[in-house]
Amino acid sequence: MTQLPYAIDAETPLSPSELAVLRAQYEKEGEMVGVQTKFNYAWGLVKSNVRTEQHLGVMLLSEIFRTSPERRRECLYYLALGNYKLGNYGEARRYNDLLLEKEPANLQSSNLRVLIDDKVAKEGLMGVAIVSGVAVAAGIIGGVLLRNLGRKR
Amino acid sequence: MADPGQKDDFPDLSSFDDDVSVISTKGLEAFGRKVTSTASHLIGPITDPTSNPRYASAMSEVSRQLRKPALQRGVFAMARTTPTDLVRSRLSTTEIHSRALAYVPDELLRQIPEGDHSYSLFQGFQASFPEFTDDGSGKSKKHRRRVSRGRRLLEERPTTPDGTPESVMRIKQEKTNMMHSLEMLGIRKNMTSAEIREIDAKLENLVGMRKILLERLANLEKDEALLEHDIIDVESRLEEAQDMVAEAESVALQTPNKSEDASGDESAPGFMSQSIYDKLPGAAGSGTSTPSSKRKPRSIRKKSAPILHEHFKPGSMIRSMRAHPDSITALDFDAPFGLMVTSAIDDSVRVWDLNAGRCIGLLDGHTASVRALQVEDNFLATGSADATIRLWDLSKAHYDPQGSGFGKDEEEDDDGIAFENPDDLPVDPPAGSMSDCPLFTLQAHLDEITALHFRGNVLVSGSADKTLRQWDLEKGRCVQTLDVMWAAAQATALSSGGDTWRQTNRPSDASADFVGALQVFESALACGTADGMVRLWDLRSGQVHRSLVGHTGPVTCLQFDDVHLVTGSLDRSIRIWDLRTGSIYDAYAYDNPITSMMFDQRRIVSAAGEDVVKVYDKVEGRHWDCGAGISEADEGKSPAIVERVRIRDGYMVEGRRDGIVGVWTC
């Protein structure tokens, strides 16, 4: 499994016309759509910045995962990536860790793990910062009030 | 700072994390980008191009990593996910919905086989849409475009003088680009072949499904046939029961004190009256002792049309059976998988159940071989070389298609229940199973009957005594005699020699039947004779109103529908005439004389002295062969020549010179 896209690849959206090409191809093949076409469209969707499109992309990827077992292993990575983009870090971690378990040497996958960790950490920190900020503000206000009260007395 | 050696340094950078994190993020990002671009600029041409994007992204990852202090990561590493994610996954309905759709259950995750694909889906994506997956730098785009037009690339080369390091560089770059394209082409090739394999697998799957469905259809038809048979049984029993009730009623009318019983019987629903019928003493006895005298002709006619054969591949054999020890002289059947009647030189006439493929019985009566026969609606007409025509009612045969208990009761002679096993062919049918079939015999012709046709109550026959006779089947009498020679002479006298008896100079004429074929439709009669003429008669006036001249040999077969008349002749040709204008609409010829021909909505099948049946597909305008000669030629066997052929709704029956009858789909 050497040829996987890095996470950075998923961050560059396709232009609408390019995505339209992929969609047209996908819709043209109808019910008997091939795995590759399906993936192409799914990947184009995952790359998008629109959240609903990303959702659809991940859904298609999971369909591929279900229907073609021989593609499951690499699909794990795409699923992890898609969920990472969606911000579903729990899911992303679930798939990515499974893949890493099977392929410890997978560069892209270990890269993604770091990214997920980062994102979780950053947003967690932000949460802590907000909470602590609120606490500090409350403390200050409380202190001021107390002092005012104290001064009044 | 941007020398190729930089590449070696970067793995160490992560160890600098803590020191470098002091530097502002923006600066570092810029640094990373710069490293990327310069490195790709300088290293790109020399190193493997595939390492390029990876290197670039790796470098950008480095810069990302540098942004986050290790400490920060350490603190929250135990958290599986972020609070926002948790909130979203719990509260937003659309999120929950899409997650449920995209969720992959654990059992699926556990079944992950080794991928043995030579390329990844992403590679496939890259290969099919190279323009989408560019690294974003216009430079590589330009290169690819140039590579795609290889000719221009070669023309452009001389613009820079050879020998300079620049040109070496450029050529090398072009080479790597071309190698890249080659690789991409390889992937696309692989992809396409994989897709073809996928489709093959799907096709195989579909073929398997079709086979299963075909089997299901066959089973359904079998069930249908069984049920139909039961229905017929019930119908006949119901009829008898009703007769009994009517009888009882008439008795009751004479003896008023019993009228209550009778009216009770009458009002009872069908099932009840049937059970009453069963209880009535002597009912079963009377039913079996006089099975045909009391009973109305039981219809063997199918209530449902079998369609199984339509789904077979055209030209596939349904059945083959040895019908007679001698050459088949005539055969006909009423419907696909219905009843077939065959006759051979050995004077015997056999009735067959095409569904089961077994002989129902022998029709005795003719003292010479039957030359012409027709089956229509359970009625059979046979014209024999003994100059008689016999009519038979096939519905009166003591034959039980399924061999069930009811049928056995009905059999007066139980000796013939040997057709339980359809495999041992030919099974001798029970003697006398056809004893009730003969209706009447038409005797008037002076020589052998060579052709006959009936429709409704009108039967016409053609004989070697050079006359045609029209019979009324209701009265069983000859209504009209048409003298072909007289008509020919008449025509000569009236119109100046347009229609005469033409002496064809073919040696085969002596053996040919004087009247080769006939068909009647209400008052219209078409007959083909040994002089190669096809005459259209008006039965009301008894005159020939049109003659179709064209065949140069005796006409042996003829059939018309509302538009066309098709004739086959010993002159080897099939001619299709337009009935309205009397002109030739189409014609084609085979290698040998045509002995038999018939058409249905789509095909014209002919027996043309070969071991295969010649089929002309009218819709596709295609000629093809169908029959034993194709499949058995491979096995080194040479089947006998096909003598007679009949077709109805794509269901074809052919009789050969060795007495074998083959059933095919067309």
From TrEMBL, chain A:
<dbReference type="InterPro" id="IPR011990">
    <property type="entry name" value="TPR-like_helical_dom_sf"/>
</dbReference>
<keyword id="KW-1133">Transmembrane helix</keyword>
<dbReference type="GO" id="GO:0016559">
    <property type="term" value="P:peroxisome fission"/>
</dbReference>
<dbReference type="GO" id="GO:0000422">
    <property type="term" value="P:autophagy of mitochondrion"/>
</dbReference>
<dbReference type="GO" id="GO:0005778">
    <property type="term" value="C:peroxisomal membrane"/>
</dbReference>
<dbReference type="GO" id="GO:0005741">
    <property type="term" value="C:mitochondrial outer membrane"/>
</dbReference>
<dbReference type="InterPro" id="IPR028061">
    <property type="entry name" value="Fis1_TPR_C"/>
</dbReference>
<comment type="function">
    <text>Has a role in mitochondrial fission. Has a role in outer membrane fission but not matrix separation.</text>
</comment>
<keyword id="KW-0677">Repeat</keyword>
<keyword id="KW-0472">Membrane</keyword>
<keyword id="KW-0802">TPR repeat</keyword>
<dbReference type="InterPro" id="IPR033745">
    <property type="entry name" value="Fis1_cytosol"/>
</dbReference>
<keyword id="KW-0812">Transmembrane</keyword>
<feature type="transmembrane region" description="Helical">
    <location>
        <begin position="125"/>
        <end position="146"/>
    </location>
</feature>
<comment type="similarity">
    <text>Belongs to the FIS1 family.</text>
</comment>
<protein>
    <recommendedName>
        <fullName>Mitochondrial fission 1 protein</fullName>
    </recommendedName>
</protein>
<dbReference type="Pfam" id="PF14853">
    <property type="entry name" value="Fis1_TPR_C"/>
</dbReference>
<dbReference type="GO" id="GO:0000266">
    <property type="term" value="P:mitochondrial fission"/>
</dbReference>
<keyword id="KW-1000">Mitochondrion outer membrane</keyword>
<dbReference type="Pfam" id="PF14852">
    <property type="entry name" value="Fis1_TPR_N"/>
</dbReference>
<dbReference type="InterPro" id="IPR016543">
    <property type="entry name" value="Fis1"/>
</dbReference>
<dbReference type="InterPro" id="IPR028058">
    <property type="entry name" value="Fis1_TPR_N"/>
</dbReference>
UniProtKB/TrEMBL annotation, chain B:
<dbReference type="GO" id="GO:1990234">
    <property type="term" value="C:transferase complex"/>
</dbReference>
<protein>
    <recommendedName>
        <fullName>Mitochondrial division protein 1</fullName>
    </recommendedName>
</protein>
<feature type="compositionally biased region" description="Basic residues">
    <location>
        <begin position="293"/>
        <end position="304"/>
    </location>
</feature>
<feature type="compositionally biased region" description="Low complexity">
    <location>
        <begin position="281"/>
        <end position="292"/>
    </location>
</feature>
<feature type="repeat" description="WD">
    <location>
        <begin position="321"/>
        <end position="362"/>
    </location>
</feature>
<keyword id="KW-0853">WD repeat</keyword>
<keyword id="KW-0677">Repeat</keyword>
<feature type="repeat" description="WD">
    <location>
        <begin position="525"/>
        <end position="547"/>
    </location>
</feature>
<keyword id="KW-0472">Membrane</keyword>
<feature type="compositionally biased region" description="Basic residues">
    <location>
        <begin position="139"/>
        <end position="151"/>
    </location>
</feature>
<dbReference type="Pfam" id="PF00400">
    <property type="entry name" value="WD40"/>
</dbReference>
<feature type="region of interest" description="Disordered">
    <location>
        <begin position="132"/>
        <end position="166"/>
    </location>
</feature>
<dbReference type="InterPro" id="IPR019775">
    <property type="entry name" value="WD40_repeat_CS"/>
</dbReference>
<dbReference type="InterPro" id="IPR020472">
    <property type="entry name" value="WD40_PAC1"/>
</dbReference>
<comment type="function">
    <text>Involved in mitochondrial fission. Acts as an adapter protein required to form mitochondrial fission complexes. Formation of these complexes is required to promote constriction and fission of the mitochondrial compartment at a late step in mitochondrial division.</text>
</comment>
<feature type="repeat" description="WD">
    <location>
        <begin position="442"/>
        <end position="481"/>
    </location>
</feature>
<feature type="repeat" description="WD">
    <location>
        <begin position="548"/>
        <end position="587"/>
    </location>
</feature>
<dbReference type="InterPro" id="IPR015943">
    <property type="entry name" value="WD40/YVTN_repeat-like_dom_sf"/>
</dbReference>
<feature type="repeat" description="WD">
    <location>
        <begin position="363"/>
        <end position="395"/>
    </location>
</feature>
<keyword id="KW-0496">Mitochondrion</keyword>
<dbReference type="GO" id="GO:0005741">
    <property type="term" value="C:mitochondrial outer membrane"/>
</dbReference>
<keyword id="KW-1000">Mitochondrion outer membrane</keyword>
